[in-house]
Design a protein that fits this description.
CATH topology: Rossmann fold
Shape: globular
Strand content: 25-35%
Order of helices and strands: EHHEEEHEEEEHEHEEEH
Largest sheet: 8 strands, mixed
Helix content: 25-40%
Structural class: alpha/beta
Number of domains: 1
CATH class: Alpha Beta
Number of helices: 6
Distance between the termini: 34 Å
Low-confidence stretches: none
Radius of gyration: 18 Å
Length: 215
């Protein structure tokens, strides 16, 4: 697991703004900070990918350079994951993309199950697969999404990017997908009784796009 804010950097400041009720009401800034974390994660992930050598021509000469051997597939869970996903896509601009629609469906006692009703994905066989999920809380929705994605092929590597994760969610992913690499903005220790990360930052989807109708 890689914690992007483990040593103080600009990532730490962006996460502070994401958490802070005094600044997080600026939706544009909230989305942009999510993008920034995605961009940093993409940069770090790029260092781990296989590369190939190719010849290019400059105005003066020819030179052998390194390029990504196989472009990754980027995926996210709608809708909260879109800004984080966009940040990754900003850097992996030649990648193919897939999308999953999943949400918590609460019952009368406020227990929830995971409802997933849409998935579209390009070929992931032998390609790096990067999954963006801004809040890795219980890990239940992410596990279901990844399992469905893996029905479309076996990636060469699996990378999971989250702005904030709970220790429980991390353990869920590590136990279910032991070969996955996690790229986490910040790690929080606990969850509320309703399965929300604390201290966390609230609902990333609502803060990005406005409050949703409950169903």
């Amino acid at each position: 697991m890689h914690i992007l804010s483990q040593n103080f950097s600009l990532v730490s400041s962006w996460i502070n703004d994401l958490r802070n009720v005094e600044t997080q009401q600026d939706r544009l800034k909230f989305r942009r900070n999510m993008e920034r974390i995605g961009e940093i994660a993409a940069f770090e992930i790029s260092k781990t990918l296989e590369f190939k050598e190719v010849e290019i021509h400059t105005p003066l000469d020819k030179i052998m350079v390194k390029e990504i051997a196989v472009q990754p597939v980027l995926t996210t869970i709608l809708r909260a994951g879109v800004p984080l996903f966009q940040g990754i896509l900003n850097y992996f601009d030649k990648a193919d993309c897939g999308f999953v629609a999943a949400y918590r469906k609460h019952d009368a006692n406020d227990y929830f199950s995971i409802k997933q009703d849409y998935l579209t994905c390009p070929n992931i066989e032998n390609r790096p697969l990067i999954v963006a999920d801004p809040m890795l809380a219980t890990g239940a929705s992410l596990v279901e999404a990844i399992k469905d994605l893996l029905n479309h092929g076996k990636p060469s590597s699996l990378h999971i990017v989250a702005a904030i994760a709970s220790q429980q969610g991390v353990e869920m992913i590590q136990n279910t997908f032991p070969d996955a690499q996690l790229w986490i903005g910040a790690l929080d220790e606990s969850l509320t009784a309703k399965g929300y990360i604390t201290p966390g930052l609230g609902d990333a989807g609502d803060l990005s796009y406005g409050e949703k109708l409950q169903r």
